[in-house]
Design goal:
This protein starts with 5 loop residues before the first strand and ends in an 8-residue tail after the last strand. It has a single domain, classed as Nucleic acid-binding proteins (OB fold (Dihydrolipoamide Acetyltransferase, E2P), Beta Barrel). A five-stranded mixed barrel has the order 1-2-3-5-4. Strand 1 and strand 2 form a beta hairpin. By secondary structure, it is mainly β. It contains one helix and six strands; from the N terminus they run βββαβββ.
């Protein structure tokens, strides 16, 4: 039996940060919640990490594009100033642009 830690996010891009061999996307998944008798948006921000061919594809992503992203969850830890810090990384393996901020987009991409 295989152990699995995966995620799926459909949300809007807030920020794209391209480095040499890695890219970071800040994506907001919007939820609604009722406050008193009114419904309010409750965006949840996620920082996604991309490697390999997805870094090149990330260069074509714009702010407010609607993405469908799937990938794996990775826990890591490191020491900073003698204190052990833990974090959870969301490693994007596949993504598709559902709607570009200017209109509909391709939805047929999957990483090799």
């Amino acid at each position: 039996m295989q152990n699995v830690a995966e995620f799926r996010i459909i949300g809007r891009v807030g920020k794209v940060e391209i480095k040499d061999k890695v890219a970071f996307l800040d994506v907001a998944a919007n939820y609604s919640r009722k406050v008193d008798d009114q419904w309010e948006d409750d965006p949840h921000w996620h920082r996604l990490t991309l490697f390999g061919k997805n870094v090149e594809r990330a260069k074509k992503i714009g702010k407010s594009d609607l993405l469908h992203v799937t990938g794996r969850v990775r826990q890591s830890s490191f020491e900073r100033e003698c204190v052990r810090e833990y974090r959870v990384d969301l490693i994007a393996e596949r993504f598709a642009v559902l709607v570009r901020s200017g209109g509909p987009a391709d939805r047929d991409y999957e990483a090799d």
